[in-house]
Amino acid sequence: MSAGDASPERVYLDYGGFAPVDPRVLAVMRPFLEAGIGNPSAPHSLGAEARVALEAARVKVARLCGGAAAGVIFTSGATEANNLAIRGVALGPSGAGGARVIVSSVEHVSVVNACRELERGGAAVATLPVDSEGRVRLDALRGALGTQAALVSIGAASGEIGTLQPLGEIGRLTRAAGVPLHVDAVGALGRVPLAVDAMGIDLLTLSGNDLYGPPGTGALWVRPEVKVRPQILGGGQEGGYRAGTENLPALVGFGVAAELMRTEGGHGEAARLAALRDQLLEELLDAVVDCRLTGARRGRLPHHLSVVLRGVKTDNLLLDLDLAGIVASSGSACASLSRMPSATLRAIGCAPDELDGPLCFTLGRFSTAADVEAVLRHLPRIVARLRALAPLGRR
Amino acid sequence: MVEASKLFNPDKHIDCTGLFCPMPVVKTREAIGKMAVGQVLEMLSDDPGSDPDMKSWAQATGHELVDVSRRGPVYHFFIRKTR
Predict the structure, then answer these.
(1) How far is the alpha carbon of B25 from chain A, nearest alpha carbon, in Å?
(2) Exposure winner among A167, A168, B22, B33, fewest CB in 10 A?
(3) Among A112, A116, A341, whose Cβ lies nearest the Cβ of B60?
């Protein structure tokens, strides 16, 4: 990779954790940082200019979502958008009188913890089981929808294991039941076919950085009929749904990033990344024993590869890879922090001796075949060395 | 009934109420790290998911989850450091 990287030798394969900002996005943001002084809420001419720039960004983000621009509520990122969707709907009019929320067992921690906060307040949360590849069991969703619910929240794809959810079928079931569907689209939007209007999605979470935009930007797209209770109160920005003066330079960048993703992220780029990913997977499975793919082989994010390695600990693996100039991740920052087995890996039925060694590579716009070759050159040797140091049964 | 905190005579208490996963586990790990083998930690949490989380953490780390009780929304975990 090259963009945003001080060290040209570094192989960066943690796009899911943080994506480098595209230089074209940065170029558009720069004048807004250097000379832009408009507050989009201000009545003077600078405010009017700021408003025009903000609304143009909103249109671009909405176009990527496949819905109306009026539905876009800008936030500080996907975590805030997930909180706004789940708490905002469950604590709003449709959740009044004891909300019931339905989620999957492979959701991002921001979804999980927003639900736990609701449970603290007396709400009921139904967690749907998944199959061994991490796909939500539709029969379980059908059953859960039999009892009244305020919201269904299911991520388009797991950031940990890359599996895509059958959103078309999920949308048909939630629409038939008259329950709003929230989809955390981080990782998936712009990379796989996804559109709110075509798929019956009522709320959609986006991350600006996931699209090579600036960190600290995100959005929740909301269908006009769905009532959301604001979670950040103040001066009525973002239609009253998210107070606080908008971060104009970053949101302008987010808009450009969304537009670039819409025009460039789809078929050709997704196929390029999937080909690199498939090469990495196939050669890795040949070169390393006791290495198993997690999540779906087909029907997964095109830029995502996740495996579990028996007999190694992820912390040691990531450190050794880093020393070799390769940046990867465990797939779950939460599990890394607590050093607890990942809930997603437990949900898909990983064996106890696989839970210590998840490894996740996420490729992106600046990834090349040389990056894949570097991993294949170093990883087998690193795994062999770690296994020799800590043989199975004596860890 | 004897109160659990008297029964297990904890050497240290931490209050994680108001926090969510992974923080009760992270703070427990930090506290246990500073304690001696055999000592008991009492950890309080009102995260509804902390019961399965703490059981899973104890299983993964080998520390002994001596007792779990619940008073209202608050769980009381007693963990003995084993290594």
Answers:
(1) 6
(2) B33
(3) A341
| CA atoms of A372 and A283, how far apart (whole Å) | 10
Closest Cα to residue A342, out of A353, A328, A356?
A356
Q: How far away is chain B from the Cα of A337, in angstroms, using its nearest Cα?
A: 7
What per-residue string of b and e applies to A297-310 under the rule 16 or more CB within 10 Å gives b?
eebbbbbbbbbbbb
Chain A residues with CB under 8 Å of B25 CB are: 338, 340
Q: Taking CB atoms and an 8 Å cutoff, what residues of chain B touch A341?
A: 56, 60
pLDDT tops 70 at residue B5:
no
Contact B22 A340 (CB under 8 A): yes
pLDDT bin (cut points 50, 70, 90) of residue A6 is very low
- ω before A166 within 30° of 0 (cis)? no
Q: What is the pLDDT of residue A128?
A: 98
Show the domains of chain A with their CATH numbers: 11-21+265-389 (3.90.1150.10), 23-264 (3.40.640.10)
Which residues of chain A have a CB within 8 Å of the CB of B33? Answer: none
Taking the C-alpha atoms of residue A6 and residue A325, their distance in angstroms, rounded to an integer, is 12
pLDDT in tens, A232-263: 999 999 999 999 999 999 999 999 999 999 99
What is the predicted ipTM? 0.79
Contacts of B70 in chain A (CB under 8 A): none
From B4, B19, B21, B35, the catalytic residue: B21
- Cβ-defined contact of B20 to A340 (cutoff 8 Å): no
pLDDT at position B2 is 58
Closest-CA residue to A204 (of A61, A85, A56): A85
Which CATH code fits B4-80? 3.30.110.40
- pLDDT tens column, A155-193: 999 999 999 999 999 999 999 999 999 999 999 999 999
pLDDT of residue A98: 65
> Residues A227, A180: contact at Cβ < 8 Å?
no
Q: Which of A113, A120, A340 sits opposite B46 (nearest CB)?
A: A120
- A340 to B49: CB separation less than 8 angstroms, yes or no: no
- What are the domain boundaries of chain B? 4-80
What distance in Å separates the CA atoms of residue A48 and residue A40, rounded to the nearest whole number?
A: 7
Q: What is the pLDDT of residues B9-42, one digit of tens each?
A: 999 999 999 999 899 999 999 999 999 999 999 9
**Three-state SS sequence of A133-177:** CCCECHHHHHHHCCCCCCEEECCCECCCCCEECCHHHHHHHHHHH
pLDDT, tens digit (0-9, with 9 covering 90-100), for A168-178: 999 999 999 99
The residue-averaged pLDDT of A85-114 equals 89
